[in-house]
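Running this now, will post back.
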Amino acid sequence: MEKELKELTKKNHKVFFEDKELSYSGVPFIISSQSTLDCQQGKDRNVKVKAEYREKKNDEAAKDHSCRKHKNIVQITKKFDCPAKVHIKEILEFPEFKLDRDSEWLRKDTSKKLRLALTGNKNMIVSRKYVLIIPDISVHRNHLIGDAAGLIQPISDELIIKIGEQVKVGVNTVTEMRRHLENFVRINFSSRSMPNKSNKRFFPLDETIRNHMLKARKKFCHSLIDQECLNIKVAEWAKNYKEAFIKFRPKGENNSEDNNQDLQKSLLFIFQDKWQRRLLVRYGNELSFLDATYQTTRYALPLFFLVVKTNVDHQIVAIFVCENETTEAIKEALTFIKKWNPSFQPKYFMTDYSNEEISSLESVFPGKNFCYKRYFI
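Update: finished.
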């Protein structure tokens, strides 16, 4: 809200000597800026944007294999058209131009001199003040007020900082974190001004604390970019599982042997350990399963499992993640698995009723005696 004096001189501001919020003191002033803040439960000024966003999300959810998480939202908005508003004014006073006596002619003459001084960039004594107009509590409508209003308050910024500090020193449970936060609140408030326990700004819910602990942990990750974190994990897995086959191509890196430009720059991750290769060769040459899972991760990426039936149960013998569920992307991943297991030649494959999966399997594993079991889930 604050502005430099040079910026103010670019506009022809009106000079005041009094205002409905400020009584006459003889000192001229200008209103450099002003702002109006609605109540949190005030008028919803983004109705159209929210409606377009909900329509977009509903269209995405209607598509096949949607990864959107469904939440039961009882109240879609916290806005209740409360008329209460807070008005803020920033004024600049110029005490050097103070009037000795009040008259209309002196006001006009002093205003003229002040404008000339502002345009001439003269060094002047400037006093910056703020006028804050807060409505009476009775102005609020259609929502809770008083102590009951604390139930819908967001968590304090000071508590968010405190959570980050405690996570950094090793606090990893909600119960322990709540004890530290309550002690922090007691230190910062006297016994008379201690907020009510129902005030969620200073006594947040367990879920709120847990969410902010998770956000704090993410800040201490190797990187905020998940691909970089996965790259570090791949290097760690390659060190710990030396006999495992791992293929990781981050999005944007052009290191694919395929001529498809989109495929060359798309994300690909494949993992297969030694014991998985052994089970694949032993049990997979008769019947194998290829299954794509959805809504199992927070990413809108298909996760594929290659599964075989052993003499005990079903086991995952390879996994891969590709950016897009296309025939070319699935075919590329299966080609790597086939290259890692030259003796893997299944007679039958069971898969979802997906044309992309079926086409890729037919391309990678051709053969006269090869057939599929197609089914709906």
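The chain is about 35% helix and 20% strand. More later if anyone needs it.
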